[in-house]
Amino acid sequence: MSFNPTKFDYIKHRKIYFAITIALVIVSVLLLSFRGLNLGIDFTQGTRVEISSENQIKEADVRSVIEDAGIDAEEIDGIQFAQGGKLANVTFVGEFSQDQISEMKQTIEAQYDKEPSISTVSAQVGQEIARNAIYAVLLASLGIVIYVSFRFQPLYGIATVLALLHDALMIVAFFSLFQIEVNLYFIAAILTIIGYSVNDTIVTFDRVRENLGLAEKGGRKVSFDELAHIVNESIQQTIIRSINTVVTVVMTAAALYIFGSEAIRGFSLALLVGLIMGMYSSIFIAAQLWLVMKGRTLGRTKRAS
Amino acid sequence: MIKKGKLATFFIVVIALLVLIGTTSSWLLKDTKLGLDLKGGFEVLYEVQPLKEGDVIDQNAMSATLTAIENRVNVLGVSEPDIRIEGDNRIRVQLAGVKDQTEARQILSSTAQLSFRDINNKLLLDGADLKAKGAKVGYDPQTNQPLVELSLKSKQKFYDVTQKISQMQPPANRLVIWLDYEKGDSYEKEIQKKNSKIVSDASVQEPINSDKAIISGGDIDAAYGKQLSSILNAGALPVKLEEIYSTSVSAAFGQDALDQTLFASAIGVAAVFLFMLLFYRISGFVSIITLLFYIYLVMIFFNGINAVLTLPGIAALVLGVGMAVDANIITAERIKDELRSGKSVLSAFKAGNRRSFGTILDANLTTLISAGVLYYFGTSTVKGFAIMLMVSIAVTFVTNVFVSRYLMQLLVSSRWFDKKKSWFGVKESEIREL
Asked: What local confidence, expressed as pLDDT, does residue A2 receive?
């Protein structure tokens, strides 16, 4: 018989899932410490010039146009091409003055018949944006822990937040691994995932709570094995829904990634990675984590009585 | 025992919704305000710095600067400017749909400090000598060339200045008019530059017995003349503005981004619709109608609160479709479960609805928390994303509770589907006997 998600035992191999996850987390942390992130100008400083043309853009031409605009081509940090070479993304480490920007605009427009888009960020603002991004992620996580702890119990809250931090870390690690440029929208994607990937976890926990309530009727104490059975059953009952809701969002994110504008490509990719890792963590990590933590409290009450 | 009335009501409601959406959505789209990343424009964060040593940047200076910038934006004639003070010494300006961005940026940040100097850069007259609203565009009566006419407060002072200049040896007998002269600038160097701060360096043969100074020739065409006189009349900035963050999107880029992303959105939404139809059949059909209405309502709300649609905002709307379908899936899955356990269509529907609301609420509120944080920390386009996310979530409740359930209610209670469990995506073989 083929694999049936509604019959699969999600609890039996929990130690394997934990091991996989811990390994992934360690690899991610190592990646981040040694490889780091390819931070865009938004988080550091510098200038980005997007040139668009009807025809193929040649790198040598770009350099000479930049020289024509009175800027040393040595200052170019990198040139990336997209859309079959009709779009060039030129980055500079330095920030430019208003006059330099207007000079560059005019020169490029004269060459390519299209006005370029130019962004420049000073070091001071870049640092602020980076700091705010970290605050935002922490604040959102805190808000969700408080909400889940309030609606359920603190243990559910802890399991939820560990799962969502895992999801966020996986996105960051993915971007580190492939050195994809991280910009402002990336933070928006991380926060969206933090808010959204909790959905599946919550739906599962909702079912756990419902089933546990039935089992504990009349003040009956539940053993660890029974608890494990309840968790497994709850995952089985909600699995199709968990998969299907993620699939629908994945379809929209994938469409945006494949067909959408260049500007939100990184954003859509971050969402895709986050959605898939979020699905993994809510099926294989969150509820199992809760089970282990809850199991400990069971043990304690047993010894106490 | 099919209740045809219920079925008829269902079709009438569906058709009414489709007609409503079909006839009014073009009007709705026209009403939608596009952000600078979709229609081109720029955003600049200025740091306000003292113009002279010893000047203090306090609240008064900031609000005076804000007013001066607002006056200048009015000169530009941009329909939806967004100008706000941030922190103690920053001003953020967002202008979407500006035609000439370079000109606009010059107009905004030029301090418009007018000064008359000799070629040795010695100050002779400055902006304080200009009458209020004393600049206007005129035409040379002989050549019909555009020129800028400056009305000065004192005829005598101008006579004295021009007398002094006229006595200098040619070619040094020039009256140099500067805009935004800064310490260290010099006539010889500046006059070589392309975008020079020198607006005029006419030679003066004899003293001028008039209170009108004329700037003409060279760069002055009708457009620049108008711009120059507008800045001078809008008043000098009391401070210096330094761009510390700027982003500009050309109109062509914006249009491309809009087209591509709308195309991508259409594909994404179509894929979701197809998926729902294949997986949940009749429940899926109802959710498609609901989702269409959902998109429509989101846009109405969004326009209603005067929000600006940005590129990530469109992404949020499309993602919202994927998320909103969640509510339908939770209910549809429950219905399938109940049907498999052998329940009738009607009781399966009731059981499916009973618990799903709490779950939907919990799941969406966490996303709302994230969106709220994003709104608080984000700027411009990211803020647009956060607003769209929040509106989407709010509308999800409305459409799910009122539209989707109502439509399903009509269908189920018509009893037409009592024997058609496969229409809900359940295989006959899966159904257990009670």
From this structure: 60
CA distance A81 to B64: 44
Lowest mean pLDDT among A246-255, B82-91, B201-210, B266-275: B201-210
Task: Please write the tens of the pLDDT for every residue from A30-75.
Answer: 999 999 998 888 888 889 898 888 888 888 888 888 888 888 888 8
Structure token digits, residue A92: 């500079």
The complex scores an ipTM of: 0.85
Identify the domain boundary among A68, A89, A121: A121
**Beta carbons of B385 and A116 less than 8 Å apart:** no
Chain A window 105-144: which residues touch B at a Cβ cutoff of 8 Å? 105-106, 114-122, 124-125, 132-133, 135-136, 139-140, 143-144
Q: What is the domain-level CATH number for residue A81?
A: 3.30.70.3220
Residue A30 near chain B (CB below 8 Å): no
Contact between chains at B244 and A125 (C-beta distance less than 8 A): yes
Q: What is residue A305's predicted lDDT score, i.e. its pLDDT?
A: 38
| Adjacent-strand bridge partners of B270 | none
Structure tokens at A34: 């040694």
Provide mean pLDDT across the span A250-264.
Answer: 91
A:201-260 residues touching chain B, CB 8 A cutoff = 202-203, 206, 210, 237, 240-241, 244-245, 247-256, 258-260
The closest CB to that of B374, out of A105, A120, A136, belongs to A136
**Contact at 8 Å (CB) between B407 and B7?**
no
The two tokens of residue A130 are: 């980076």
pLDDT tens-digit profile of B51-67? 777 778 888 888 888 88
- Whether residue A115 lies inside any domain: the answer is yes
Instruction: Please name the amino acid found at residue A1.
Output: M
Q: Is residue B222 pLDDT above 60, yes or no?
A: yes
Per the structure, the complete domain to which residue A206 belongs is given by 14-39+125-304
**Which residues in B lie closer than 8 A to residue A50 (C-beta atoms)?**
253
Please identify which residue in the block is written with the tokens 């899936």.
B329
B231: Cα separation from own chain's centroid: 24
